[in-house]
Structures are given as structure tokens and as C-alpha cells.
Design brief:
Elements (H helix, E strand, L loop, with lengths): L2 H10 L38 E3 L9 H7 L2 E14 L4 E13 L6 E6 L4 E3 L10 E6 L15 E2 L7 E6 L5 E5 L18 H14 L13 E4 H12 L5
Parallel strand pairs: 1-5, 4-7
Antiparallel strand pairs: 2-3, 2-6, 3-4, 6-8, 8-9, 9-10
Length: 243
């Protein structure tokens, strides 16, 4: 895939962003110097220091559409912040797979996210170390010569195709989706946003393992479903002819 093609794909997830000029890869960390838990690297800021942009998706995906369009569907854990690019309007993080439902991922890889520390997409804070996410990803891309990262993956629908992982006191695992387009279209899945007790417990549990709940301007989740329901739907999809 050419670098030009890559940039087109990166930008299709958001078509109404502020215009930026120049290139800035701030404090880039060489990829061969993998950080340990004793040396956690966080993004300079999770909400844009200079402001936020109003993102508007070029298109949204239902659960089945996102599954079909993605090269990889997986639960991953975010690792260290690597670098960010003003020119490409994105930030790069180390990541590792926890569960892979479609495609393949190496034990350590790089994921990009729209936004960087100066300007982020409204209500979409940058990822941070230790967060566990359900993601619908592209296949691997070529290296961009002006960035200090090798092959990396990106979310096919950006903030519309990511869900955060949370557990209740009984050990049940949930997917918490800000936009709700994917989560609300999983066949047979109940949305627990309408259950105040469970929703409150999940937000408390999630907030103890991630500071995303406390991030200023973070939005309320629109979909909260059981991971078991999602996995059942994935299994049904994978059994369809041509899957």
C-alpha cells in the first residue's frame, strides 16, 4: 500500500477537522527500545492542549459491517505512547493482543489514533497505558518515511469502532461504546446503559483502571453490552458462507 493511499485511509474516518500545517514527531521513542512497566510513557495530554476538533465520520459501521470491513478484530491492551504527528494528525502507541477474533496480530505492534496532544477530536481522549479496548483494525500498512514508526494498524472507523473493557463485581466483562453504532447493532445483545445500577458499577470499575472517566469532556457511553453476547455474535458471523 502506498503512503498516499495510507493517508487517504487515515483521514476517511474524520472529514471535518481543523487544518494543520508542518510536521512534528514529538519526543519519538525508538521502537526497538520497548518500555517496561517501570518506565511507563504516557501521552503529553489526553485532551488537546490547544483545543478540540469536531469530528464527523465519513461513514459509520454496524457490527456486521465493521466485522466485514476490518482486517483484524481483537481485544488489545494499550502500552506506551511512542510519538505523535501534527502533519498526519495522529498519535502512535505500543499495543499487545489479548483476544483475536479475526485476522492475526503479533505479540507487540503499533496502533495509531486520530488526534495528538495539541488538538484531539471532541469527546475522544487519547488512549493511555493499560487501557483494554475492543477494536476493528485495518491490515498492516507500510512505513511512513517521515515517522519513527514501522508498520502500524489503525481503527477503520476510528472512534466509532472502539469499545472500552470493564468488569462488574461478579466477574462479567462488558464492552463500553461511546458512539453506540456498533454496540447497539450486535444481534441479541442487551444495552445496559438503561440499567442505572449496573451502569454506575461499571463506570466505577472502569474508572479505577483507567482515568478516561475523569477526563474532562469525555462523553457518556451510548452502548454497554456483555462481551459474551459480542463473542456469540462473532461466532455466528464467522460461520456464514464466505466469512
Amino acid at each position: 500500500m502506498s503512503a498516499k493511499r495510507l493517508l487517504v485511509l487515515l483521514l476517511t474516518a474524520c472529514i471535518c477537522l481543523l487544518a494543520f500545517s508542518g510536521c512534528s514527531d514529538r519526543n519519538a521513542v525508538p521502537q526497538d527500545e520497548l518500555s517496561s512497566k517501570e518506565n511507563i510513557v504516557l501521552p503529553p495530554a489526553r485532551i488537546g492542549i490547544s483545543g478540540e476538533t469536531e469530528g464527523r465520520l465519513a461513514r459509520s459501521y454496524t457490527f456486521s459491517e465493521a466485522y466485514e470491513a476490518s482486517g483484524v478484530v481483537a481485544i488489545i491492551e494499550i502500552g506506551n505512547w511512542i510519538c505523535e504527528s501534527e502533519e498526519h494528525f495522529c498519535t502512535f502507541f505500543e499495543a499487545s493482543p489479548i483476544s483475536v477474533y479475526k485476522g492475526e496480530l503479533p505479540q507487540s505492534f503499533v496502533i495509531s489514533q486520530l488526534g495528538y496532544s495539541e488538538y484531539t477530536v471532541s469527546h475522544y481522549p487519547l488512549f493511555s497505558y493499560g487501557e483494554k479496548l475492543l477494536v476493528f483494525l485495518s491490515a498492516y500498512t507500510e512505513k511512513l518515511d517521515d515517522l519513527e514508526v514501522d508498520d502500524f494498524v489503525f481503527l477503520i472507523g476510528d472512534y466509532s469502532t472502539v469499545a472500552y473493557i470493564a468488569e462488574d463485581g461478579s466477574g462479567n466483562t462488558y464492552l463500553m461504546d461511546w458512539l453506540g453504532v456498533v454496540g447497539n447493532s450486535v444481534p441479541g445483545a442487551k444495552n445496559f446503559v438503561g440499567d442505572p445500577d449496573i451502569y454506575k458499577e461499571l463506570k466505577r470499575s472502569f474508572g479505577s483502571s483507567s482515568d478516561i472517566i475523569g477526563v474532562e469532556n469525555s462523553r457518556e457511553f451510548q452502548s454497554v453490552i456483555l462481551l459474551d453476547d459480542f463473542e456469540r455474535a462473532v461466532q455466528n458471523l464467522s460461520q456464514l458462507p464466505g466469512a
